[in-house]
Design goal:
The chain is mainly beta. It folds into 6 domains: 86 residues, Immunoglobulins (Immunoglobulin-like), CATH 2.60.40.10; 86 residues, Immunoglobulin-like, CATH 2.60.40.10; 93 residues, Immunoglobulin-like (Sandwich); 84 residues, Immunoglobulin-like (Sandwich); 84 residues, Immunoglobulins (Immunoglobulin-like); 46 residues. 8% of the residues lie in helices and 50% in strands. It has 2 helices and 37 strands. The strands form 10 sheets. Strands 10, 11, 13, 14 and 15 form a 5-stranded antiparallel sheet that branches. Strand 24 and strand 25 form a beta hairpin. Helix 1 packs antiparallel against helix 2. The radius of gyration is 52 Å and the shape is elongated. It comes from Timema californicum. InterPro entries: ECM_Regulatory_Proteins, FN3_dom, FN3_sf, Ig-like_fold. Keywords: Repeat. This is (California timema) hypothetical protein.
Amino acid sequence: APEKVKKVKILSSYVSNITAIWTLPSHTQCLHGLQVCLSPRDGNQSDCTIQSTHGHAARTFTELTPCSHYIVNVTTISSSGEYSEAVAVSVVSAPPITRVNNPRAFATSSSSIQLDWEAPTEGTECLKEYSVCQKIVNTPSNDCVNHAVDLETTLNYTDVEICTNYSFILGARGERGEGVYTTVWAMISLTPGNVSSLETSSVGPSVLVTWTPPSYRPLCVVHYEICWGSSTDDQNCTVQENSVTTFDITELTPCVEYVVGAKREDRCSLDKKLILQGGIFTSRKLFYIDSPEPARNLAFSFANATSIVAEWEAPSDQSDCLDYYQACLVVAGKTVCVNQTRDITTAYIPDLRSCSSYAVNVTAWTDGARSSVLSEQVNTTAAVPDVPNHLHVNYAETDLLNVQWRVPTVNYECVEWYIVCWRSSQDGTEGCLNTTNLEQVITGLTPCANYSINITAVGAIGISRASLMSAHTRLQDMAWIIMHSFAHKAMTWFIMHSFAHKTMAWFIMHSFARKAMVLSVRILS
């Protein structure tokens, strides 16, 4: 078979004619010619012609059915009459479609947008429909529809969110494909409400201003304007974007009263131009002071087991601008604070724990600003511990008792160790042990005996009252007693007769042991 042509493509396509071109194979010396055919895509009829390889590598088909799909195929013919594999390309008898004309989108009410356009200037002979996609700007989702060409070139969108930017993408679609898409934008712009909850706080050398967006139409805010000044004639202003509701004001004069205000700027569409319309100011007075210097020379003029008195000196600078002092410490996991006016530089702090160390922190405050922390350590004095709690026997054996207790309710921090003492009610034997634990095993006791036990807590300056109880050791098992008695008798007899009658002694001892074992098993069962 001869070599086939390398490529077939469409040079031009119009309503009634198509021009196809191709590239000849590398070797054409043995070719008789080319067969070029045009056939409908959905039919078998073909318009074929034989062309010489020496002519133009192109053919124009005329008098075609408008807006129809065709297939062009080219085959080489050898001098011996053989045909190569056909090379085909699809084509539509239609001109290219241009973009739609004069698209525009505009608000027609507070909740609807109208989109309209005009048909393309060229390629409308085979126009099938329009494609229209609508979405909120900077969101991924599209809402697309196909709009028939026999309908008016207008679409109305209702239930549109106010002050939200929408994009509309339009394109014309014909038998030959889609034209170039065009995008237009529209927004329903309304006046928002006023800002609210304007707050200020001094942090370091600046003032932090915060506010709440309008509750009415917040999406319609373009940006916020913040102004401040010591008077209406001396003001500074700045702008923050609508997603930011804070601003730091810097370079203020300490101990000066300022007025701070914030207002929203909304947007309205007027003659297709975006203009700004000022809102209403929400203002707040602020007595500004830079972060004050810390208090000085913190000391403690009094400290006992449950309370302290802290004393300090005022800062070396800006003390007249202070509002109050705050002295804080942590008691049993909770922060306890005492506030004092700027004229009082002492603080009495009660209800503390004895034998404890506390870090006392003193801070100087103004309206919203605070100094660094002045901190010192103080220890409460020792006290005699209270009686230990909940003394009880954890378990008892024949010769030992395990006793446990809990720390005293009052002044448990002052406990250094515990004294555990016991006394037998039968023979009067007694003993004592020192321990830092909350339990003690008392050993070497008599079985089935009653003991009195007392626990005292020892502190640096005294001993607590005793916590008292009675306890019993356990009775030995009867089987063990009998077996032990038999074994003892057998061992005694064996020792006495082992030298004279070794074999008989072993037999008798073994007999004693067996009797003891049998008897003990019967008793136990």
